[in-house]
Amino acid sequence: MSITGTTQILGIIGDPVTHSLSPVMHNAALAELGADYVYVPFPVLADGLEAAIAGFAATGVQGFSITIPHKQAILPLLATMTDEAQAVGAVNTVWRTEQGWAGTNTDVAGFVAPLKAFRPWAGCTVLVLGNGGAARAVVAGCAQLGFESVQVVGRRAAALDVFQQGWVNSPLHPPLTVHSWESLPTLLPTADLIVNTTPLGMHTTAGQTPLAPEDLALAPSHAVVYDLIYTPRPTQLLTLADQRGLATLDGLEMLVQQGAAALEIWLDCPVPVATMRQALVDWLAR
User: Fold this and answer.
1) Annotated binding site for shikimate
2) Which residue numbers belong to the known binding site?
3) What are phi and psi of 28, to 5 degrees?
4) pLDDT tens digits along 74-96
């Protein structure tokens, strides 16, 4: 890839962001397409978001991805957002328009893609660990897949109440209930799918897990454990789930599919999904 004075800038903002593999897959796709773009990581602290976005506007950044902790904090800084982003209440993809920044959420499509290929989910129960921006995309995806019950657990009662209230006027109408973390022993035996949306176990906390072996022992033998974290691979949670004999999914395909949807928005053309996937697989195998 050759960077010149005409090269356009795309990127990802978050804290942390050094672990992100988004630059690997996006730059592989851009190179194959011969597009005069480069995709770079931008570490942005929570209190620096507004200044960073103003800087992007001033320096000609064309679009960017969003990860923890900015997926909801970005909303007041957008001129417009898609209906899906409004329903989820969180944004992971932003692009420049004449009116200002526009946002959407491609995490929903990314989340459901591997589940659609796994088994039918209508009438099932999902247990969602965490109640941040990623959890909102998961809830939206589970509503699309026809889950009969969506159980969300979190550690702070006030945040859980806000999370639940955020769905009151949603057109998705997910069958949602929220619970404290202490409710896990009651909820785990009913779960057909367990989804980790918390950052616990990602690169900066590798070796940690939101569920201990004794927790996973309560899950049904047919349950699937889906960790949205994609590095390290596998996470400690998925290692423990595999030892328990449970089927597992990691966040790699979700990352690929949501990234491909974002790149199509930025470039306004089809993108090489297989190239993006292979770039990540090769990188992780190094």
Assistant:
1) 20-22, 67, 92, 107, 230, 258
2) 20-22, 67, 83, 92, 107, 130-134, 228, 230, 251, 258
3) -65, -45
4) 999 999 999 889 888 889 999 99
